[in-house]
Amino acid sequence: MLSFDLRSLETKAVHVDGSISPDDPIWEEADPRPLEPIRVIGRLSSAGEGRFYFSGRIQGGVTLPCRLCLEEVHVDVDEEVHFLLAETGAEEADDPDVYLYDPNARNLDLRPSVRETWLLTAPAYVQCSEDCKGLCATCGTNLNETTCNCTPTTADSRWNALLKHQGDAH
Predict the structure, then answer these.
(1) Around 40, how many Cα atoms within 13 Å sit in the side-chain half-sphere?
(2) What are the distances in angstroms from CA 66 to CA 8, 29, 61, 63, 143?
(3) Do 167 and 103 belong together in one domain?
(4) pLDDT band at 165 (very low <50, low <70, confident <90, very high)
(5) How many CA atoms lie within 13 A of 96 on its CB side?
(6) Judging by beta carbons within 10 Å of its beta carbon (0-12, 13-18, 19+), is residue 71 exposed, middle or buried?
(7) Where are the alpha helices (DSSP H) in 11-159?
(8) Which residues neighbour 7 within 8 Å (Cβ) at sequence distance 6 or greater?
(9) Contact, 30 vs 39, CB < 8 A?
(10) Could you tell me the residue range of the domain that residue 164 belongs to?
(11) For the chain, does the N or the C end have fewer beta carbons within 10 angstroms?
């Protein structure tokens, strides 16, 4: 469970142990969705009037295409996270590290904050291996699996002046 009664939060901290599933409506189309539910564990406590502080961990896994060869790569995410939640209109509202919630709400839903934290924590790009050769720019062959008979493409002639200076530097 990632939704908590605001009135009870003002008087005592709560232990958070919940998850967000990959099919939760909180996710947007372009988000790197987790493979399995993201586990959220930690402590949520009052940090002053209308403010709450979360300290804990998010754990999950995501599969992304290798940025060079497009093969799928599984990445585990296990990060310690801390964030502040404040009422919409609070003086911290302009701070990008503060997550806002509706002051008229009865419950504080951590899912939007966890989603944003996931987007910042999960890698945007991955590489299947350090020595990935990628795809042939001409025919698209995965050069990790086989070679192709394409001839190397020549560089755009507009770069020649820079390439000449690079050669001088060596």
Answers:
(1) 27
(2) 45, 20, 15, 9, 13
(3) no
(4) low
(5) 3
(6) middle
(7) 111-121
(8) 106
(9) no
(10) 133-170
(11) C
Q: How many domains does the chain have?
A: 2
Residue 36 and residue 116 in one domain: yes
Please say whether the beta carbons of 126 and 110 come within 8 A. no
Give the predicted TM-score (pTM) of the model.
0.75
Is residue 29 within 8 Å of residue 130, measured between CB atoms? no
Give the number of other Cβ atoms within 10 Å of residue 67's Cβ.
Answer: 15
- Tokens representing residue 92 in the block: 């911290």
- Tokens encoding 45: 């406590």
DSSP bridge partners of 44: 14, 54
Structure tokens at 114: 């966890």
Q: Looking at residues 100-124, what average pLDDT do you find?
A: 90
- Token pair 């093969």 is at which residue? 71
Nearest of 142, 138, 141, 164 to residue 152 by alpha carbon: 138
